[in-house]
Amino acid sequence: MKLSVIVPAYDEAGTIADVVRRVRAQEKDGLSLEVIVVDDGSTDGTSLAVAAIVPPVTLLRHPGNRGKGAAIRTALDRATGDAVIVQDADLEYDPADLSRIAGRLGAGERVVYGSRIMGNNPHSYLRYYWGGRLLTGAFNLLYGTRLTDVTTCYKGFARDAILAADLRSSRFEFCIEVTALMARRGERIVEIPIAYNPRSMSQGKKIRWHDGVRALWTMIRLRVGAGGPSRGAVVG
After folding, report:
1. Which residues of the chain have pLDDT under 50?
2. Cβ within 8 Å of residue 229, ≥6 positions away
3. Which end of the chain is less crowded, N or C, counting CB atoms within 10 A of the terminal residue's CB?
4. Residue 111 forms beta bridges with which residues?
5. Which residues span the domain enclosing 213?
6. CA-CA distances (angstroms) from residue 9 to 13, 68, 69, 101, 144?
7. The pLDDT value given to residue 8
8. Residue 217: its pLDDT value, please?
9. pLDDT recorded at residue 40
């Protein structure tokens, strides 16, 4: 199976090469990887760090910072894999989990999320941890799902599932938007436990309180006028 790994990057010159190296280490046991890095208007030399990677990866650039969702949409136009997954450009998420998610996609699942909650991991700042739990709870109430971690980065999709989604978000609300669109279409969302090593604000964590407000508004907006109830999520 060919997996397109989309890496949105904004001022991640210090970690991007290591992320790509660890992602590429998962290319084994019949798994072929296509790595697409989108430099989302970085000012710290992220593009130079990516350009120095050997063998080269696909590098796309935004002239200014447009946000994670916009970067993902840019990469989707170039992705050619049988499945697609999002990988953050820092090292909060362990690329060793990619092969497990890809395995479920290769076995026929169409939407597979890596859950930090199921993984029994250390917490980030309490406001981020509880903010994520509250957004997940609100999402489950609105969409009839049983997800544990709607804001996780590790979201894997069959190619046709993600390309059929009418994605419009530009920033971190992508996580809510894409999940809402999958739930509204009745796609089964499978969750598996993953590792998570949260970083601090001083280390470059970028999400802010207003991103949570935007995410909440996104899930409410997309729920209004939605069709019948979703089929929920499968955990395990």
Report:
1. 200-206, 209, 227-229
2. 144
3. C
4. 157, 189
5. 2-235
6. 9, 8, 11, 21, 33
7. 97
8. 86
9. 97
Are 89 and 37 in contact by the 8 Å Cβ rule? The answer is: yes
- The structural domain count of the chain equals 1
In SS3 terms, 141-170 reads as: HHHCCCCCCCCCCCEEEEHHHHHCCCCCCC
Model pLDDT, residue 129: 79
Tell me what pLDDT residue 228 has. Answer: 47
Beta strand 189-193 pairing with 155-158: unpaired
DSSP string, the chain: -EEEEEEEESS-TTTHHHHHHHHHTT--TT-EEEEEEEEES-SSSHHHHHHT-SS--EEEEESS---HHHHHHHHHTT--SSEEEE--SSSSB-GGGHHHHHHHHHTT-SEEEEETTTTTPPP--HHHHHHHHHHHHHHHHHH----S-TT-S-EEEEHHHHHTS-----STTHHHHHHHHHHHTT--EEEEE--B----GGGT----HHHHHHHHHHHHHHHTT--S----EEE-
Q: Whole-angstrom Cα distance, residue 92 to residue 87?
A: 10
**What was the pLDDT predicted at 132?**
82
Q: Tell me, what's the pLDDT at 207?
A: 57
This prediction has a pTM of 0.89
How far is C-alpha 68 from the chain's CA centre?
Answer: 9
Is residue 230 a contact partner of residue 144, using CB atoms and an 8 Å limit? Answer: yes
Residue type, 189: I
Query: What's the chain's length in residues?
Result: 236
